[in-house]
Amino acid sequence: MPGLTIGDALPDLQVETTQGKMKLHDFVGDSFAIIFSHPGDFTPVCTTELGMMAAYSDQFAARGVKLLGISADDISSHREWIKDVEACSNGHKVTYAIAADPERRIIKQLNMVDPDEKDSAGNNVPSRALHIVGPDKRIKLSFLYPASTGRNMDEVLRVVDSLLRASKYRIATPVNWKPGDSVLIAPSVSNEEAKKLFPQGYTVTNVPSGKDYLRFTNID
User: Fold this and answer.
1) Of 10, 24, 33, 46, which is the active-site residue?
2) Are the CB atoms for 134 and 7 separated by under 8 Å?
3) pLDDT tens profile 36-63
4) CA-to-CA distance for 96 and 89, rounded, in angstroms?
5) What whole-number distance in Å separates Cα of residue 163 and Cα of residue 166?
6) What angle do CA 179, 145, 20 make, to 5 degrees?
7) Edge-to-edge, what's the strand order for the sheet holding 203-204?
8) Cα separation, 93 vs 158, whole angstroms
9) Radius of gyration of the chain (CA)
10) Does residue 8 contact residue 141 with C-beta atoms inside 8 Å?
11) What CA–CA distance (Å, rounded) separates 2 from 120?
């Protein structure tokens, strides 16, 4: 599906949210931010997702990551919906803003449309899209789920941790990585550079090719 994807600049849209009007670039500022869409208010999967995002919001805030939801209804609907979300989320409060998009203008510009799911009027509904945006206002990572599948917030938090480390160090995170595990030194780093950048040392995995590209180190 054409549209906004990894590496693209985030459009500087002005949006109306439950916390007032804002421009997306001003919202992101010098931080990482998560912008996530929902098919609609008062829908079961979305309600569980907003509640879980509320439960995780302190963990994202501790990492300096901002949150912005988008749902294809108006602000008054959002405010009523939040009451339901909070009632079903074990005491967690929705402290992040939710943008209104009743005309579905925002989701189209942010590539958050489900090509298959349609509402009763035959219009395409928002997908469960999630963009992680860097301080440079570019998309660093995107998830795109169908409307029928809820997101995994543990995975969202894991990839945030990976992106934050990769923005600070010249590393990549291997399969199933989680904080505290070893990371891989980026292929663009020579062995001489690696000695300077990672004074704690690194280990090289021996492989049949004899190439020394699997270089593991610890940064946590």
Assistant:
1) 46
2) no
3) 998 889 999 999 999 999 999 999 999 9
4) 14
5) 5
6) 85
7) 171-172, 183-185, 215-217, 203-204
8) 22
9) 20
10) no
11) 25
- Write the CB contacts of 209 (distance below 8 Å, at least 6 apart in sequence): none
Cα distance between residue 212 and residue 206, in whole Å = 7
Q: Of 199, 208, 160, nearest to 217 (Cα)?
A: 199
Question: Which position has the token pair 């062995």?
Answer: 191
DSSP the chain: --S--TTPBPP--EEEETTEEEEHHHHHTTSEEEEEEES-TT-HHHHHHHHHHHHHHHHHHHTTEEEEEEESS-HHHHHHHHHHHHHTTTT----SEEEE-TT-HHHHHTT-EEEEEE-TTSPEEE-EEEEEE-TTSBEEEEEEE-TTS---HHHHHHHHHHHHHHHHSSEE--TT--TTS-EEEPTTS-HHHHHHH-TT--EE---TT-----EEE---
20 residue type, one letter: G
Torsion of CA 190, 196, 202, 207, to 10 degrees: 10
Q: Which two tokens stand for residue 70?
A: 């988008």
Task: Give the separation between CA 110 and CA 105, rounded to whole angstroms.
Answer: 9
- pLDDT attached to residue 2: 44
For this structure, is 88 an active site residue? no
Give per-residue pLDDT as tens, 132-186.
999 999 999 999 888 788 999 999 999 999 999 999 999 999 999 999 999 999 9
